Amino acid sequence: MSELSRLRWRCRRGTTELDRLLGRFLDADSNGYQALDTEGRAAFEQLLACEDDDLIDWLLSGHLPTEPQLVDIVTRVRAASGL
After folding, report:
1. Which residues contact 83 (CB under 8 A, 6 or more apart)?
2. pTM for the whole thing?
3. CATH assignment of the domain containing 39
4. What is the pLDDT of residues 3-53, one digit of tens each?
């Protein structure tokens, strides 16, 4: 399984909103996953390891995580989806 296929599987969260947000980020060219450096990709993996309730709070409600390494990736995911 390729890295992108594995990530696409991990982006499937069971809620339509999160699936769309994370999927858009994964598919975006200039401001999505493909544009991330190694550190950014590691932060995205860390984001995918978080609980759905936290992701909803950060990505849909506009709150920011307390972990500094997640703040940038949350901001990028929201921007790639036009939020």
Report:
1. 21, 59, 60, 62
2. 0.90
3. 1.10.150.250
4. 888 999 999 988 999 999 999 999 987 889 999 999 999 999 999 999 999
